[in-house]
Amino acid sequence: MKSTSISSLAIALGLTFSPLTYAASSTPTGAAVVTDNAFNPAMSLILSGGYTHASQDPESYRIAGFDLPKDAEAGPGTRGFSLSESELDLSANIDPWLRGVANIALGSDNSISVENAYIQTTSLGHGLQLKAGRFFSDLGYVNSQHAHAWDFADAPLAYQAMLGTQYADDGVQLTLLAPTDQFLQVGIELGRGRSFPGTNTNRNGAGSSAFTLHTGGDVGDNHSWRAGISTLHTKADAQELSSIDANDHEVINAFTGITDVWILDGVWKWAPNGNATRTNFKLQGEYLRSKRDGDFTYDTETSNLTDAYTATQSGWYLQGIYQFMPRWRMGLRTERLNSGTPDYASNQVNMTIPTDDARKHTVMLDYSPSEFSRVRLQFAKDYARGDVVDNQMVLLYQMSLGAHGAHSY
Amino acid sequence: MLKKNVLMAVAVISLLIQSNTAHAALRIFACEPEWGALAQELGGKLLDVTVATSALQDPHQIQAKPSLIARVRNADLVVCTGAELEIGWLPVLLQQSGNANVQAGKLGNFAAADFVKKLEIPTQLDRAQGDVHAAGNPHIQLDPRNIALVASALSTRLQQVDSANAGQYAQNLASFSQRWQQAMTRWTAQAAPLRDVAVVSRHKAYVYLYDWLGLKEVAVLEPKPGVEPTASHLQGLLTSLKTTHVRMTLYSAYQDPKPSEWLSKNGGIAVVKLPFTVGGTDAAKDLFGLFDDTLARLLVGANTK
Ligand SMILES: [Zn+2]
Fold first, then answer.
1. Could you say which residues of chain A have pLDDT below 50?
2. Spatial distance between the Cα atoms of A62 and A75, rounded to a whole number of angstroms
3. In DSSP terms, which residues pair with A50 in a beta bridge?
4. Interface residue B257 vs chain A (CB under 8 A)
5. Helices and strands (DSSP H and E) totals, chain A
6. Is B156 an 8 Å CB contact of chain A?
7. Architecture per CATH, A6-402
8. Which pTM was predicted?
């Protein structure tokens, strides 16, 4: 009985156990008692929720100079008590060659969405890996991390403004890790381009492509780092964007064209003797630059005026997280966007260019009673609207139940 | 741009695949220093050994940093403890390495704990009991009898992975085993006074050591596995220790000595820092030094008034 429960757990947790070798190597006394449940995927549940206070109405949230789709997930979310993104994660080996992963997001509005659902090769070798399905793109640093692994309750403004908070697509990804002692990984992704800055359309071929390059290593025993450059190319067809026009009216405009986003990312970690258990420090920053080129339609509902459009916009954030004693961390993030000077051609008269850049300063303190639980308090002065300040306070819990997760760098 | 992205990737990828370096020595990625040292004993010049962690790091909590991913990518054999000790980081390294030969269950993946009899296998799995190790206590390296078992299994594995040099590995094992048996006889004799001595541990990391030497663990400073000692827990321990005769409190080189020192000062018992693995103290230079120094420190602790 004891050995059955432990062997089934070993299969569930040992992400890459193949059933055949398992039976041969781990049960010297005889065949494993295999029940239907023994091959269940490793399962973990992320429970998250909290309380949000915002001095401005989140309904009126916008990022000055950056037009976003009406349903964009930008801003502090709902005020008061609410569930944050809770999530069910499943993963297991499919056969000796493939692994499958699914992350099902449970929204506070009772919605269930497929955040990730992909298959991945485990035995191509030569440092190659192929992924297919829906997955977070490898762009930048925070993009591929799950929200519960972020050091702040929300994504950086630059991600909210230029990557739809977190870029996930349906497609394929090929990565290669170089056979060198220096970490050097390149990746190529081809996708549908279903989410901002792309749009979901009825077309053959790929609607988006991405190229990623990351490198990293150690400096002595105390320091490690990773840096990268990535680019995303997407197509948009009649992408509806909510904007404030020159007459201060909320209008729906549309963009058809291509978007190229370039991202530089870097993270540097310090821990005395490489032992991060007691104290450690992490410095992280990213710079995003987005160029949109195509046609812009002003006020699709009434005026419906279309002309050429180009815009080059950028943004960055820099953050530091310090674990000053076991279980306690504090963090500071500062960020700024530059909405540039978009060229609306003849539509210029209908649109305004904001005078104040969006910017935000955030502090946080978090406490982790164990490896599986965390409570965070976060304050932000959010000038995303440009002229007015939104004072935000977020109290958040994040818990992980079930299979012991392993953490990426 | 789309075409440019694809071309860029294809160019870089083909360049990197071709630059596959030819390497003479068998590349070993050892998760902990004790297995790096053992591989060195068994392979010597035939191996190029990378040790992922140091004795000053907590093997439960290691970051899956880029340098380690790159090393696993190029490894011919990954030698780790297993039994879920590295569950928080090794799966990420294996998965991101893109190295098919070292995945769990493959010949290039060696888990030392598979070859010893594990103690403290929990009958109930509940995280209310802390970060319990479901496969049993993974800290197997402080019993030299386990080292002997792992040595012969690892030598067998080296002979399988690098069959061209099988004879040399077998010869190295014979030499190591002989020296190890002699050392064990010496250690067992030296350690006789430690039998039935009552001790307090910092973490449940020494059960195999106690099993070997007959030390008696009467308490653990961590209230639950993986949970840092709290003031109230320490206070409670101090009170309960008044009625038991405890000789020393033990902690490992990578741990914060303060809770053990506090108990030592207030409870009037000796505090002993153990190297825990190769490199944990100056004297623990190799596996022989690890046990020489561990015993020397325990004997000093047991004799402190
Ligand atoms: Zn442990």
1. 1-34
2. 8
3. A82, A396
4. no
5. 3, 17
6. no
7. Beta Barrel (2.40)
8. 0.89
Listing DSSP states for B58-87 in one string gives -TTS--B-HHHHHHHHT-SEEEE--TTTTT
Report pLDDT digits (tens) over A245-289: 888 888 999 999 999 999 999 999 999 999 998 999 999 999 999
- Using DSSP's 3-state secondary structure scheme, residue B224 falls into coil
Q: Which domains are present in chain B? A: 24-186 (3.40.50.1980), 191-302 (3.40.50.1980)
3-state secondary structure of A267: strand
Residues 6+ apart with CB under 8 A from A145: A136, A408
In order, the DSSP letters of A385-406 are TSSS-EEEEEEEEEEEEES---
> And the tokens for A47?
């429970």
Q: Is B195 exposed, middle or buried (0-12, 13-18, 19+ CB in 10 A)?
A: exposed
Q: Which of B7, B10, B21, B63 is the best mutation test for A, with the most CBs of A within 10 A?
A: B63
Q: What is the pLDDT of residues B118-175, one digit of tens each?
A: 998 887 777 777 777 888 999 999 999 999 999 999 999 999 999 999 999 999 999 9
CA-based torsion, B70, B72, B75, B76: positive or negative: negative
CA B139 – ligand 1 centroid, Å: 6
SS3 content of chain B, % helix, strand, coil (to 5): 50, 10, 35
pLDDT at A367: 96
**A373 within 8 A of A352, measured Cβ to Cβ:** no
Separation of alpha carbons A115 and A73, rounded Å: 14
CA–centroid distance, A374 to ligand 1, in Å, is: 21
Shortest Cα distance, chain A CAs vs residue B129, angstroms = 11
Sheet strand arrangement including B248-252: B216-220, B198-201, B248-252, B270-274
Characterize the bridge pairing of strands B77-80 and B109-111: parallel
What's the ipTM? 0.87
Q: What are the structure tokens assigned to B154, written together?
A: 């690892």
Say if the Cβ atoms of A177 and B73 lie within 8 Å. yes
Within an 8 Å CB–CB cutoff, is residue B238 touching chain A? no
B-chain residue closest to A24, CA distance = B105
Distances (CA, A) of B130 to A276, A406, B134: 20, 17, 11
Whole-angstrom Cα Rg for chain A = 23
For residue B100, the chain A residues in CB contact (below 8 A) are 122-125
Q: What torsion do the CA atoms of A265, A270, A274, A278 make, to the nearest 10 degrees?
A: -120
Can you give the residue ranges of every domain in chain A? 6-402
What tokens appear for A113 in the block? 């969405």
Q: What are phi and psi of B172, to 5 degrees?
A: -60, -40
Q: Which helix (H) or strand (E) is B219 found in, with range? A: strand B216-220
Per-residue pLDDT at B15: 63
User: DSSP letters of A65-125?
Assistant: TB-B-TT---SS-SSEEEE--EEEEEEEE-SSSEEEEEEEEE-TTS-EEEEEEEEEES---
Q: What is the pLDDT of residue A13?
A: 37
How far CA B14 is from CA of A186, A212, B74, B101, in Å, comes to 11, 15, 17, 21
